[in-house]
Amino acid sequence: MLSSIILKSDYCCKKTIKSCLSFDIKNKYHCFSYTSNKYLNISNGLYKSGLVTINKYESRSFEIKKYITYSSKKWINKNFAYLKNLTDTEVSNRCSKQSQQIVTDKEPVGLHPKKEFSLDQTSVNSEKEPRAALNYATRDATQNNTDDALKTDTPSNVTNAPLHNQALSESEKVLIEKVEELDQDIKKSLLEVFQYKELTDVQKLIYENVLKVNKKNDLLIQAKTGTGKTISYLLLVIDDILKNRIMSVHTLIIVPTRELANQIYNEAKMLLTFKNNINVLTLIGGIKRREDQINIRRVKPDIVICTVGRLLDHFECTYLFNTLFENLKMLIIDEADQLLSLGYKNEINRIISYLPQKKRNILLSATLSYNLTEIRKNICKSDYLFLNCIQNISQHTNEQLKQSVLFHKAIDTTVILYNILIEHMRLNQFTYKIIVFFPTAKATAFFANFFQKQLKISVYEIHRQKEAAHRQIISNRFALESVGILFTSDISARGMHYSNVTLIVQVNSAISREQYIHRVGRTARSNKEGNAIILLNEADQLFFEQIKDLNINKLNPDNYIIKNTNISSYLNSWISNTQLLYLAYAYYSSLLRFYKTKYVTLKLTDDEIIDVVNNTLLSTGLVEQPHISNKLAIALNMQNNPRLKIRKDIDDLLL
Ligand SMILES: Nc1ncnc2c1ncn2[C@@H]1O[C@H](COP(=O)(O)OP(=O)(O)OP(=O)(O)O)[C@@H](O)[C@H]1O
């Protein structure tokens, strides 16, 4: 028996649904099918062969209306009839009749052509094979990995949120004060300390699919940057600690950077304001190991937040450290796609080998999809749930973010950066908060000093070569300031929340599309507006291919290369400053390395790399080409290139 929903009448508008729609209840899923529906966009479903599978809902008719995302409920009420208990054939007949009726449909306007998907008409009842029926609505080359991963999953694995950033109607919002499952003290701190009123999309998804129904599966969670993933998993952790109190560490949270560890620590402490019997501790580099050991004994942590290096260090060097985790209940890997990528994979695998098998794994990121299969295989148990707030990878960045690209010549890099900053500061005198990402730590150090000392623009500086304590102080200061400029390397790209950032500038290409998404995700957070500009010189141009679907508009470089007398004189007068000179040489070497590691993706020859690096340095006013050490030249495999100035007598200080 099938129940069906059919279009009541011919509907002629921009958002026409081409045919009819029916649904069947089989086991716990509702399966929607429709005939020639090209444009119907059911946000919380997965598509293939005419099937849309959605998890169980309480009210069928209501939920169906809710998940036809671009149509208002009013429109649905007017145009759909809800029919019960039809046989297969009846539905088919009605469907085809209905299809014939609606022949005057107009092309939908405002839907991206990529969103079109064709459905296999023959598989109206193919819910017999739910595995094969799973797929995303959007087809595009870069998403194939996700699709492949999902094809092998059972439908219960995947839960999508309504299209992200779409304003939730009042009835869809989950008000925190009404959430009965939350502990009273936690609720109190959410309402009074954080002053949040409702759950964000990702928090709502977790609440409804996991917390409320008390599920204990492993979780993969993907939601856009700045949407509250941290609170969402902290709620899960605290809920579990309160239910299953143990006398050793309950949850281990692994993150890529010290700053992020501290940020999560602060958020957890705030959440536990009225619950002082749950203890949190960070174990991060830059602090003596012995100090950690004392803190562990003193704090007796329930939740431990660690960076990868320090955790591994302890496992391998601290006597009996692994016994701390012998009853571990939860392992959380934040920024999971990064931590499970090549750079960190071995270390994470070693860490996991020290942890008990029987624990719950929760993996999060704004960009999980590209290496999903591997992540799933490596870490998750087979009955894991994938909670996904991003259904279309071209919507990975926030809607309220205005993105631009500026293609320019390397020789104009410094003046363009200067003019962008000056213009933004002028237009946002009392509110400007800017983060500038550079490709390497040494590039960051040089430009930070150059802007401070030569161009007289005050900037904060964070990168790996600064000491941990310094980094933390600068990070806190920038977070608290109402205006400011932060020059940073990728260390600040992921997870860091600085409120009210108005502009992100990226100098040169990012190391990947994902890193670009995380970098621009430092602005336009919590539904606020934000701007992002990426500066791509002649060598970086191919990087644009990786991000061009992200709705990025092009800026005219001519508007930014005007040199006023100020900058001209500043650029010409620093060569006697030995400290800056030293930093410039180091920047030069690091930029050669940067492009050499990217020469395959950017399709660069050695000569092109040397030219672009020379010109970038020339843009700062450094007329004479720096020397590099023989060792670096060999490492770059450029020791015989006559365009480089190589000196055997300088050491690797500048590497
Ligand atoms: N329910 C809520 N209501 C309002 N603001 C919230 C809520 N939950 C979290 N936030 C705020 O949203 C901001 C972003 O949160 P968070 O840093 O957890 O984002 P994220 O999704 O982890 O981002 P990223 O992917 O960049 O790490 C923070 O300021 C956080 O305090």
From TrEMBL:
RNA helicase. Residues 210-386 form the Helicase ATP-binding domain. Keywords: ATP-binding, Helicase, Hydrolase, Nucleotide-binding, RNA-binding. Belongs to the DEAD box helicase family. GO terms for molecular function: ATP binding; hydrolase activity; RNA binding; RNA helicase activity. Its EC number is 3.6.4.13. This is ATP-dependent RNA helicase. The Q motif is unique to and characteristic of the DEAD box family of RNA helicases and controls ATP binding and hydrolysis. Residues 426-568 form the Helicase C-terminal domain. SMART domains: DEXDc, HELICc. It is an enzyme of class 3 (hydrolase). CDD domains: SF2_C_DEAD (cd18787). PROSITE patterns: HELICASE_ATP_BIND_1, HELICASE_CTER. The keyword RNA-binding applies. It catalyses: ATP + H2O = ADP + phosphate + H(+).
